[in-house]
Amino acid sequence: MFKTNKLHSAILAATAAVLGSQPALAQPRQIEEVTVTATKRAASTQDIPVTVQALGEQNLENLNVANFDDYIRHMPNVTSGGRGPGQSSIYIRGMATETISTQLSQANGTAPNVALYVDEAPVSIGGRNLDVYVTDVERVEVLKGPQGTLFGASSQAGTVRLITNKPRLNEFELGIDAGLATTKNGEMSDTLETVVNLPLIDDKLAVRVAAYQSNEGGYIDNVAGTYTPDPELNPVWEGYPVESTSNEDLVEKDFNDASYQGARVGVKWAINDDWEALVQHTHQDLEADGVFDHDPENVGDLEVRRYFEDSLEDSFDLTSWTLEGRLAALDVVYTGAYLDREVEQSMDYTGYNDVGGYVDYYTCDTATRDVCYDPTKAYVGEVDNTRISHELRFSTSEEHALRFTGGVFYEDVEILDNGNFLYPSVADLGNSENYPRGWAPGSNDEIPATVIDPSARPAEVAFFNDITRTEEQLAFFGELTYDITDKLAATVGLRHYDIDVELKGSANSSFDTLFTDTDQDSSGDNLDLKWVEEGIDTPLNESDTITKFTLSYTPNDDVLLYATYSEGFRPPAYNRGGGNGNDTTTVPFTVSTDTVDNYEAGWKTSLADNSLQFNGSVYRVDWKDIQTAVFDPSVYFLFYLDNALDAQINGIEADVTWLPTDNLQIIGAFSYNDTEITNVPGSAVNVAPEGSELALSPPLQMNLRARYEWTVSQFDAYWQAGVQYSDESWSSIVVQPNDRFKQDAYTTADASVGLREMNWGAELYAENLTDERAELFINTLDASKRITTNRPRTLGVRVTYDF
Questions:
Q1: CATH fold group of domain 2-244+256-802
Q2: Which of 42, 390, 434, 733 ranks highest by number of CB atoms within 10 Å?
Q3: What is the pTM of this model?
């Protein structure tokens, strides 16, 4: 109740301040039109029967949006779950269940149900969003509700698209943006961005280059401490002379810094009056140290104790190419892309001692029970993701009553997951004749030919994933729109897809020789041979057709009403530990795609001479056979996938933009979701019961922002203030052991003031003015409870130059 009152007071105060500073009433200026390509055609957001929110280039700059976390928090009905840069998943309209640990997200995780695109290139991956730094971006589009007919796999709940600025013919542009910021009790941050657009041949050829460097200072401390396994937390330690470990060599203040470095080069060629070509290449290096979740309950505010180095190096190269033009009466677009992403990560996993059912076996001499070794546990892994996509589509003219957009799409995805779980105690135990350790492939012909690293694992490696995961998809899609009358139109969309998914390699522990004459021992799996022996089809194939139906009605030029039924899909998956189990649980070998039926009605209005826009929608989502990660510590491999439950979501969302005067703009939005788990099969374990809310789905989200502009001497001046509110939510649908936590509601506030004169501009800004500790994601992904939070109060200055 207190937080709701605080939100109410903040909104009233902000509104009163805005209206109180209003000058004499003037003729309202019109709201700027935002053009999007949500229907694979360029159109105003107000003219298409699709629920889409877009942050245009000016709004991205006004909000000081720099990365994934920034644009997500300004989008109502969009949430994320994760643990820092490049380690999150996106959720829309409450369609979320859980976030699996990044150590397992590639080897044993679900595909995302929100697709992420950079221009026309799909770049989604489970558990590791591509965290593209927002430099020279034209807009961020969020398409809500299933978008599967046009955007394919993983567009079950919606699609997020980052649309970059393209080279402009016959225009020279130069822009520089530099910033410096300080975070309360944290380190300094700095940014430098530059953009140049060079016309090389009049009317024919231009190149555009954007480059950036951003260093984000840390604000979480790794404080000194020791860790000793506790029998009260995990009874397996009872009776052992346990050993402690210290983190004295890793103690560091503000250790969670991050940096983004990258550049994008685009070349545009106007071949003739009908055809043009575009080639773009982006390279980015993201580096992060430490962790971005803290432990206020057991350690302190913005403090943790970590016993192994936490680091992340995440680099990608994205090359895309587009050829578009006309063939007779058809608009033709061919676009392709190649993504090469490499991630190296290390993280502390010592908390596993508190939950592991057999962790004593890897740490102590269980035969004598008289000695235990260093309890430190860690993960060190590499994930390589390559993705190539091609799309050829055709569109008829907008002038005709019957309009068509359709084509063919092909995609080939490969994910290489080579992850080692390091237990120093395993090396010590390896000196005992009773505990031989190590893997030395080469003498056994049954070792998978598909392993990424065929060399012997180091002595301290207890478990490892050496897995290649592939997806190959061919799809045919189309949307046909017919104007029944001047005011009523109907759209039918179809997508037929055929997708192959494959899991190959090895998921094992380094005990003795891993592969025996039976191709599988009690320690792990040779996945290549396992599927054959169990009669499991490989690759796993799924083929289906999904649909979309829309009726839109425009009683006049200022109102659009629409109703939609739509479906989406995401790829099926294997379980690396399929077939394992206990008396009550058997891990399924495969899981199928979950089904989504979305029923939606929406409105878009432009009122008061286009000085007021009010858009919204109401919807119901029936989500069945939901792919989710289930935790059962009594089952080998702990986490596994299952089509574990059904759910229903009923919701409403709306946004308003109002220009009461030529100087003042007010933007607000809200969403409300009622999520409910409607069915839990008897085979599902440790999942929240029927009637429970889904995870990471705050019932109510709101934001309100006001911007006032005026002239001071030769300067254009402005101030801006905004608040964001998010309701309570649950952290997970998994209830065992102690994984489902209630996350508190929170309210944050930002403000800025600036001056601009011709080509120069300067701004002072403040983020998280009240220094709120938002509970964005409570997790036990490293087997210890921690809370991902927002950056503390940050004050900064930005200077821009445009020529």
A1: Maltoporin; Chain A (2.40.170)
A2: 733
A3: 0.91
